[in-house]
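Students often ask what a holo structure prediction actually looks like on paper. The answer is less mysterious than it sounds. You provide the chain, you provide the ligand, and the output is a string of discrete structure tokens encoding the 3D arrangement of the protein together with protoporphyrin IX containing FE.
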Amino acid sequence: MAAGASRCIALLFLLALAGTSSAQLSTSFYSSSCPGVYSAVKSVVKSAIAKEKRMGASILRLFFHDCFVQGCDASLLLDDTSSFQGEKMATPNNGSVRGFEVIDAIKTTVEKACPGIVSCADILAIAARDSVVILGGPNWNVKVGRRDSTTASFSGANNKIPPPTSGLANLTSLFAAQGLSQKDMVALSGAHTIGLARCTNFRAHVYNDTNINSSFAKTRQSGCPKTSGSGDNNLAPLDLQTPTVFENNYYKNLVSKKGLLHSDQELFNGGATDSQVQSYVSSQNAFFADFVTGMIKMGDISPLTGSNGQIRKNCRRVN
Ligand code: HEM
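The corresponding structure tokens follow.
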């Protein structure tokens, strides 16, 4: 082959490689530009959880609600302004998602260590992992290299995040729309082994559904008035025993018909996912392994990389 032709092929190969690698995340992205990012994030998450244990759950949920709307790009963190509609006021988020102040505190700490290097989207991914670990769950290496969006999607937040009224088919298809399997969906739902939900989101399940343990239903009814509009924000734990410990109790609850949300109980209701729920009751290790796989896949949802997006200075607004 002529030298010119082989050089040309080598160049094409390099170009192709550059094209794909810019679209990929890696666990070593900050190893020379900001090696201190992991300890910086962890120290702030640790003190936030020490102050309020629920915060670990709230941070984990922020990552989920970010990734399901135009990918893991920190779009959820953008504040509304008079000329910008963000995602915070969308139905699944309004009066519900929390923890933004902790993300701000992490960003401030990380900016001191490495100004202009680490994206808010990566901070969310690392903080979600740290929250799981601190509350007793599995550890994993977080892929990083995401950049931050300059846009958000109010309608995406309303349409892509599953509501608690969802049936199994709807849950499955909303996850499939993100490239996540039904198996990933069941494993990721184990996040509901931590955190709290508002009466407005479990009222119909505890009053109207029949696939619920009756004494559990009564207990939850007592903290959640039947009439919509009263006590809407009263809180109950998603895992009735240990809402601040990350283990497999969530699945044990489902098998005894003590899921708090209608959507939770759908995962164990005589359908295709029953056997997976049973397997996590028998093996916490199996749950942890599949949860980690699911979190890594969720973290891979359409990231902005290379020269797309930006590294926000303040996670609440575009630069
Ligand atoms: C499968 C579909 C899902 C549905 C329908 C759903 C729905 C909900 C609802 C309605 C709440 C309570 C919100 C409130 O009352 O204010 C909640 C809380 C929560 N969700 Fe989900 N969720 C789902 C999947 C996930 C996933 C995949 C994760 C993370 C991997 C997650 C993590 C959490 C956490 C940790 C909380 C508690 C937050 C806190 O206490 O601040 N959820 N979810």
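The pocket of protoporphyrin IX containing FE is lined by residues 54, 57-58, 60-61, 64, 96, 98, 162, 164, 166, 171, 185, 188-189, 191-192, 194-198, 201, 238, 261, 263 (CB under 6 Å).
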